[in-house]
Design brief:
The protein is an alpha+beta fold. It contains seven helices and ten strands. The strands form two sheets. It has a five-stranded antiparallel sheet. A five-stranded antiparallel sheet has the order 2-3-4-5-8, with helices on one face. The radius of gyration is 18 Å and the shape is globular.
Length: 264
C-alpha cells in the first residue's frame, strides 16, 4: 500500500492528524472548541491517533470498532478525560488485510473510493437551528463577527447535549461505546485500487472549487497534495474571505488529505 499525505497547517499546529501503519491509514479531525474543554483538540486527536496505531500494531487483524474502542479508552485514561467533558474527533480508517479493504467512519471526514464517497452524516442530519442560522448569516454577508461566534457556541452546546446518545450522533470522545456505533464497510481490494481520505476542511473546499479528479489525486505525491491544499487556502483567502460562497465555521479550517494506492 502506497500512501502520500499533506496537511495545512503542519501536523504539529493542526487539529487534523494523519497516522499510518504498513497496511492502514488513520485520519482524524479534532473538533474546534468554542466552549471550554480540559485539553486542546489537537492534543486529544494526537493521542488518539497514536493509541490507534499501537492497537493496530498489536492486533493487525482485529475488528476496527474494537480497535477504536480500546484506543478511546486508553486516550481517556492517559489524558484523564471524562465523558461529556472531553474534546472530540472524527475518525476515518482504511486498512488492507487478506485481500479485503476495511473502512471505518465516525464523524464527517470522508473516504472517497472509485464509485462512492463514505462518510458519517449523523451530526449534520440533526439539522440544528444554530447551524442553519450561522450558515445563512454568512451567505448574507454577516461575516465572522461576535454574533457568528455566539451561534457557534450555541451550536456546540446543543451538539454536546446530543453527543454519544441514541437519537443524536456518535463521535470519538471519552466513551469507548461510541466506537461500536461507527460505520464500517468492507470491500474486496480488487474493487478499491485507490482511495482518498480527507477531513471536511479539505474536502468541502476541494469539491466547491472543482478539485475532484479523485483518481488522479489518489496517485499524487505529497508535494502535489500540498499544492492542492494551498490552492484551497488561497481561494478561501482571495475569493471568499467572508464565506458568502461557501459558508463555513472558520475562514480557514484545518485541512488534511491522504492519497492511497492499494495493491491486489
Amino acid at each position: 500500500m502506497r500512501v502520500a499525505t499533506a496537511q495545512l497547517p503542519p501536523i504539529e499546529d493542526s487539529d487534523d492528524k494523519i497516522f499510518t501503519t504498513p497496511n492502514a491509514v488513520i485520519v482524524l479531525d479534532g473538533a474546534s472548541a468554542f466552549v471550554p474543554v480540559p485539553v486542546p483538540a489537537s492534543t486529544y486527536a494526537d493521542e488518539l491517533g497514536r493509541q490507534i496505531v499501537a492497537c493496530l500494531t498489536e492486533q493487525p487483524d482485529a475488528e476496527l470498532q474494537g480497535v477504536l474502542a480500546e484506543a478511546i479508552a486508553l486516550t481517556a485514561k492517559a489524558l484523564e478525560l471524562e465523558p461529556g467533558r472531553s474534546p472530540s474527533s472524527t475518525v476515518t480508517m482504511l486498512r488492507q488485510t487478506n485481500g479485503v479493504v476495511d473502512l471505518l467512519s465516525l464523524g464527517d471526514s470522508v473516504a472517497i473510493l472509485p464509485d462512492e464517497v463514505l462518510t458519517d452524516e449523523r451530526m449534520d442530519e440533526l439539522d440544528l437551528a444554530p447551524r442553519r442560522q450561522y450558515r445563512q448569516r454568512l451567505a448574507e454577508g454577516g461575516g465572522y463577527d461576535e454574533a457568528h461566534r455566539a451561534l457557534l457556541r450555541q451550536l456546540q452546546t446543543q451538539q454536546g447535549e446530543r453527543r454519544n446518545r441514541p437519537g443524536g450522533f456518535w463521535i470519538a470522545e471519552a466513551s469507548p461505546e461510541a466506537a461500536h456505533h461507527a460505520l464500517v464497510e468492507h470491500r474486496p481490494v480488487s474493487a478499491v485500487p485507490w482511495a482518498v481520505l480527507a477531513t471536511d476542511g479539505a474536502y468541502n473546499t476541494m469539491t466547491h472549487v472543482g478539485l475532484t479528479d479523485w483518481e488522479r489525486i489518489a496517485g499524487a505525491s505529497s508535494d502535489e497534495l500540498a499544492r492542492i491544499l494551498d490552492r484551497c487556502q488561497q481561494w478561501e483567502r482571495d475569493k471568499d474571505p467572508h464565506a458568502r460562497k461557501l459558508p463555513r465555521a472558520k475562514r480557514h479550517d484545518d485541512k488534511a488529505i491522504a492519497a492511497v494506492q492499494l495493491s491486489p
